[in-house]
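My current task is to audit a protein record that another person submitted. Thanks in advance; the entry in question is below:
***
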Amino acid sequence: MLKVELAMLNEPGGREVNEDACGYWNADDRLCCVVADGAGGHGGGREAAQLAVQHVLQSFAARPCHDSHELAELLRDANRKLRSARVEGTPLANMFSTVACLVIDLVQRRCYWAHAGDTRIYWFRAGRVAACTKDHSVVQSMADLGLLSPAELRNHPRRSELLCALGSEDDDLHIGEGDLPEVAPGQDVFLLCTDGVWEHVEDNEFESSLAASGSPEQWLHGVEALVRRCAQAKPNHDNFSALAARVLEHADAAPA
């Protein structure tokens, strides 16, 4: 049996309205974490992100997903929910939201995830970035074609242009998914974060701040400091949100 230490960060940055949302649901056997970044203007983005997180967590609690394919279907259902919540002639008429969802199976000692847009999931093993989700964005597609280097993604003028997010037509919605068949307690840490975080923090900075932290909460304090330092030249910088999960062996687990 695994246990997970959690911490969350949800800050408005330089904006008056916070259009990010995050949350989690847990039971004895599973943990479900979600981070979302809304868009739509005049409150529509905030509503979209909150709706996405709320719908995913409530749906998962009612009927837990058992693999990444089921989780991807849950996000497709959230997409339909968001589209049905639009109201013409109001701030909710054109709302969208990115979403990233991670599930850790505490009994089977594995995890799986699904995402849409450019909110990311990072997997760290032994303090190093082992993998990261691939954004559904214009600049990511340019990088895939060899037109940009990965280092250029963060500052490209078209960085914020998405190819899809929740709120897309069903046929246009692309859900990324993946799984980790065996989680390593004491070595594995996961970070879900909006682009307001990863735009300003390089992979090596994530790693160094993680190494200097004794808990997910301390780590996110360090990440927040990095974001604020890098964004201070941008008074209107984006909202930034993150959820960190460190996997540990349960204290009551029988020795191997």
Q: What stands out?
A: Helices lie at 44-62, 68-84, 138-144, 195-198, 203-211, 216-231. The chain has a mean pLDDT of 93. Residues 112 and 179 are 4 Å apart (CA to CA). Residues 2-249 form a domain with the Phosphatase 2c; domain 1 fold (CATH 3.60.40.10).
